[in-house]
Amino acid sequence: MARESWASRVGFILAAVGSAVGLGNVWRFPWMTAEYGGSAFLVVYLCIVLLVGVPGLVAEFVIGRKSKRNPAGALARLAPGTKSWGYVGLFGVITGLVLLSFYSVVGGWILRYFAASFTGSYFAEPSAYFGRISFGAEAAAFQVAFLAVTALIVLGGVRGGIEKATKVMMPIIVVLLGVLAGWAVTQPGAGTGLSFYLDFDPTPIQNDPIGMLRAAAGQALFTLSLGVGTMITYASYLGEDNSLAFDGSVISVLNTGVGVLAGLVVFPLLFAFQGGLTEVTEGGESGAIFMGVAGAFREMPYGEVVAVGFFGAILFAALSSSISMLEIPVAYLVDEQDVSRRNATVGLTGLVLVTGTICAFNPGIFDFVASTLVDLMLTAGLAGFLVFTGWVLGKDALTEFDSGAGRIARALGTPWLWSVRTILPLFLLATLAVNLYAML
Ligand code: PFF
Predict the structure, then answer these.
(1) Which end of the chain has fewer beta carbons closer than 10 Å to its terminal beta carbon, N or C?
(2) Which of 230, 234, 322 best tests ligand 1's pocket when mutated (most atoms within 8 Å of CB)?
């Protein structure tokens, strides 16, 4: 059977933006920004996105478009004669499953909050509500529901499922967040939130430069879906050759734009209706943003309407990312093991049902997977993909980069290749070392 492909370039870009825009933008980004002192974190993070994220994204695109394969098949095929590169790709396939295991738990929380927003049942006691629903049998049930929707979209295939769904969801997310941000920034008291977010204050960088760099690097990779092979897989479905550098830049700009927009909703809301960040930074845990925002909804007029829009946007963002996680192992089974898309999707969903349920019942395991393990796996994975692109593909990577590229992009090809060979893997390996050291 012929391999699937995107119907259009816009479809590919929207699917990739859909993968990038997710809980990382709306849930992890405001939480990290609050924890690391606001605007300073934003600046460091933006620099890493530009200097590491965009070149890394283009490297994954190069591998994917050149090989037209899932990550494991791609690396094995492009480096014939050595088995070990295939294992680097396989590591990415496994990372996809690990990611989906914790991501679907958070997706389940969002689904639950979305449903509960119609009546506002969680407004009265935001902390107690979150405590009740976040882990245990109910969390597992909602996680299963979220996974089922994810699986249904992936079952529809590249064009009929992923491309169609992201084409509908992405514009809705932007409109909803845009309207909410426009409203939030004009609320009395929102100004303090805005200045926390946007007025540059270097003190947090001076206090803990390494910690900040580490957190910003982890966040940059997570938000751009790098180091897993999602972007390899999505680029493998490209039919014609367009400029990968251009597409990568557009995707990064749109992703960052949505992240910043989400911050423009969350921070003004918290400062205008909750008097600040106490709930978010207290303990710094993953649920804080839910409690903080939920508390704000209680205080505002028509809180239910705002809440439905807010959690609706996040739900779509989460789904357009979770489908990209499931698509990696599905593509692997379809490409390499000759399994049908249907059987691959059903089988893998069954597997994540088990691993996800483990996360839904164990806050300790969930926390470890969601922060420490994922950061380590993404950093190691991207370092592997970059070394592969720079040293194994070498000049061939440049040829692939140039194919379909305009004049400006071509001029950037050589500096791109050199950074992919040298400075970027070194930066990632240093980040990995610091992360490992922090675990001791
Ligand atoms: N980029 C997604 C987000 O910000 O929520 C998360 C993600 C999706 C990470 C897919 C990695 C991935 F392969």
Answers:
(1) C
(2) 230
